[in-house]
Amino acid sequence: MSSRSLAASPSLGLPIAQMRNVFSADDVERKLHKLQNSGVERDYDSLRNTYQRMLERGPQRFAVKPSGVPDMAPLYDLLPNFGDVLDDVKRHVALSQDSRDSLEVTPILLLGPPGVGKTHFARQIADLLGTSMSLVPMSSMTAGWLLSGSSSQWKGAKPGKVFEALVDGQYANPVIVVDEIDKASADAQYDPLGALYSLLEHDTAQSFVDEFAEVPIDASQVIWITTANNERAIPEPIRNRMNVFEIAAPSPDAARKIAAHLYRGIRSEHDWGQRFDPEPSADVLDQLTSLAPREMRRALVTAFGNARLDNRYRIEADDLPRHGAGKSRIGFLQ
Fold it and tell me: pTM of the entire structure?
């Protein structure tokens, strides 16, 4: 697939963008023409609409990369337990500078207990690189078609997540997060991880064929981040295609920084948040340090609500959910 330079001046500090073809319009036109001449077009309305949408949107997508090695100090501060992974991303960004080469990142596997912030890390990387992020929850997968699409001959068939990210999205190099890859289930007919054998290899990913559209797609620029709790549940050929990083739970000091960041984030995301104190109290941070980052956000939202029910715009430690109290009723914990 071809690409051409577009865009932003490095002096502006904006991402450098190239336009890259993620599929061949000629291939799509041939497929559409064949479908229209088959006499069964009416039975394949979804497939016909997909081809027409591809032609309307065109094959070109943005392939972006930072115009220089970005200042990643805030990310190291926000994600202190991801230092090794951030170092790896930084090396790849540095290699792509001062050349027309696209940004290529070796697929990443993040190993760690639930809730340590693996998915949050992926969102931060997508923001850093100026691209989009798609999440594929493997724990809910029962067949490989979620990634690679299902045959148009099946009722309710549709393209897979890779096709959607590249054809329906804006970028040739989105971040795709394969979440909880170790929990993918399989039966005798379908291997949920089957598509990854080619998608995680640069050369074969250049001509990835979605089973629904049956048109080659250039997925070679996709930035893959996978997460898992149990490395042994992942087939070795898949593991060998990725750089593996073990993510530990944050230290108490790191957990305080994460909790403070989440507090500020929730506050800034909502109009009502502007009425609350700019920073959480030390007592609140002390109590939050015992939680995983995933749980911190839920606890803070509960605390904001409890404070408002008490006609306050300041969160107190007692507003946070009580640990070990069992499941609470729907609504804010009192």
Answer: 0.82
